[in-house]
C-alpha cells in the first residue's frame, strides 16, 4: 500500500479588520481514503481538520466547484499569481482563504501519481477491520 502524502502550505485569509494574514496548513492524502484530501490548520489553542473531495479541488483549480460547506474557485492573488479560493462554512463560522494554484496543483499531482483518477478503491477488509477492531479472514 502506498504511503500517506503530506505537504505544508500557507493559506492567505482576511482577518476581522480586512488585513491579509498567513495561515499555515498541512495537506495530507491517504491512499486508503482515495477520494479525500485532508486540510489541517489552526492555532496553538487547537487545530481544525477538514476532509475535502480531491475531485472538488481538482475542479476548483479551473472552474467554480463545490456546494454546501466547501466551495472552491480559481482566482488571482494580490501579487497577480494564480490562486484557488477555498470557502469553508460550518455552524460555528466561515473562513474564506486562498492557496497558490502551483502549491495545490503540485500536491494533487502527487496524489494522482499514487492513485490515478478512476482507480480509486477501498480495501473493504481493512475498512471492516478498522470499524470493528477485528481482523477478517
Contiguous low-pLDDT stretches (5 residues minimum) are none
**Strand count, sense and closure of the main sheet?**
8 strands, antiparallel
What is the general shape?
A: globular
Strands of the largest sheet, in order across it? 4-3-2-1-8-7-6-5
- Helical element count? 3
CATH superfamily label:
Sporulation-specific cell division protein SsgB
CATH second-level architecture: Roll
SSE pattern, N- to C-terminal: EEEEHEEEEHH
Query: What share of the residues does DSSP label as strand, in percent?
Result: over 45%
Query: Into how many domains do the coordinates divide?
Result: 1
Work out the number of β strands: 8
Can you tell me the CATH topology?
A: Transcriptional Co-activator pc4, Chain A
Structural class: alpha+beta
Mean pLDDT across all amino acids: 88
Question: Keywords, please?
Answer:
137 residues, Transcriptional Co-activator pc4, Chain A, 8-stranded antiparallel sheet, 3 helices
